[in-house]
Amino acid sequence: MTPRTDSERVLSVPADQTRWETFAPRYARLQAAELTPEAVPAWLAEWSALDAELMGVSAKLATLADLHTDDAAVQARYATFLEEVVPQTTRADHALTEKLLAVPGYVPAPDFALNYRRFRDAAALFREANVELGVEHEAQMNRHGVITGNQKVSFRGETLTVPRVGQHLDSPDRAEREEARRALDASRLEIAPELDALMLSLIRTRRQLARNADLGNYRDYAWKRLDRVDYTPEDCLAFHAAVRGEVVPLAGRMMADIASRLGLDSVRPWDYNRNNLLDPGGREALKPFRTGAELETLAQTALGELDPELGGRFRAMRGSLLDLESRPGKMTHAYCQYFPVTNEPFVLMNVVGTAEDVRVLFHEVGHAFHGFLSGDAQPLVWNRWSPIEFIEIPSMAMEFLTLDHLGHVFPPEELARYREKQLQGVVAFLPWAAQMDAFQHWLYAEAEGDITVADLDAKWLELDRTFHPFVNWEGLDEGARAKGWQYYHIFRTPFYYIEYAMCYLAAVGVWRSFQADPARALEDYKASLRLGSTVPVPELYRAAGVEFRFDREYIRGLMAFLEEQLGTSA
Fold it and tell me: What's the confidence (pLDDT) of residue 570?
């Protein structure tokens, strides 16, 4: 494909890099090497460089596929890579892992000890039957991006992208919000049958992955695959209960106050956007920029004021490592990708000019800083980034750390509104995160037999009534509400969601420390990112100046802090 933009030139992949024959001789050389304890470090460095190349190729092909969900050639190229290269590299990596584990007398260096243990656990989980099934699983998950990336919404005589219509949910005009909500729901229901069928096939595949690994259910399989060793499923269930007890009531009080100040009889579905709660003064939604270029400029100023090093990192991304504008044929989600050979992150977004876009950019750029700093500090590719229980702290903390550096973006009154919405967002997010996690625990560990679409819809409705009882659906068709489970993470990153809640709680803690000692908190933040994946999760949290906790007492204390801060903002 001929590159169409500067960012696509960064994403270009030579044809030979998509063929197994290019990499096979290097794997064979590593496999044939005589390996002694003394030879392991150099051998690991060579293997790491090879893995980094393949990770980068996969990341670039995947990103291109998300940028062009409507381009059959782009989709086919990535699918071919998944089918022909990934199974071979999976087997080759497993063989090298077994070779490493068999070296007599080898003791890993302290900065590799954690990943050595992960290698051992991954080897125990490996099954040949799951190699090809894993490819099928990847293809199924990628299908979600094609379906949703080509989703269109009919609104006021135009055919628009989901983000373009979504911005009308922030309107102070209740009729406009309702019109936009109904248009989005109609669009979602149009693609729902395809996503229903896809989900049922994913459930079958995931159950088979677990059976092949001699495990009783997919939750047990995911727990091992995600290396969750610092907490248990029971801890997650306790978190759900804590959110019900400590956060849902606060969210209800918050929304009741907003509704009262706006003169609303109740909070209807079009009155509740957890990403951007209604302004209690009935003012127009904040619109701090118009184009992606303007967003880059305002972010550059804020990050430069916050920290010259981080500002410089963002400057290096501008031009080719950011793809921010919303457009047809582009996946509607936002994420940060990473290319390990060049130690470059890549941010994909769908901006439309809202204050929420500002927050999301700082979030994704926080991920980018994690990639930059861990890549600088950690030569081995497996030691970069971090365990998933920490990986959202760099992003979520950046949402807070930039709050005091946006005076050039918002006048004082608007900045107070933006700050208030950021704090409200934590309260609104936690019930959603608990609902998402609870749904997956039910789906993969509790639900038995042949699950039907009706079962999925019914469970989601049950959970939504539990975690969002303050939204009034009386007299409304709940068809679209029942499809709330048709969300990116349910399809593309199973069991990855409670980490957002863990990290949001920690990010509030980082911000609280930042208020007391900005220089120290910022240095702790950057130091924790440089540790990458070389220390356990609790140590990473301590390095960032917070605790690895998500129990009821801890949540109660943080909610009291947020309520106090919201009172200050009001």
Answer: 46
* pTM summary value: 0.90
Q: Is residue 164 part of a domain?
A: no
What pLDDT digit, counting tens, does each position of 38-50 carry? 999 999 999 999 9
Domain of 104? Answer: 6-141
With a cut of 70, which residues of the chain have pLDDT below it? 1-5, 568-570
* Cα Rg of the chain, angstroms: 23
> In 213-335, where does DSSP find H-type helix?
218-225, 233-242, 248-262, 292-306, 308-317
The token duo for 408 is: 């050039």
Residue type, 248: V
Helix (H) or strand (E) holding 553: helix 552-569
Predicted local confidence at residue 2, as pLDDT: 56
Judge whether 479 lies within some domain. Answer: no
- The CA dihedral of 65, 191, 167, 434, to the nearest 10 degrees, is -90
546 domain residue, yes or no = no
The count of domains in the chain is 1
Whether 55 maps to a domain, the answer reads yes
**Cα separations in angstroms, 439 against 127, 484, 501:** 27, 11, 15
Interatomic CA distance for residues 303 and 296, integer angstroms: 10
Nearest to 393 by CA among 377, 415, 374, 421: 374
Helices (H), 263-354: 292-306, 308-317
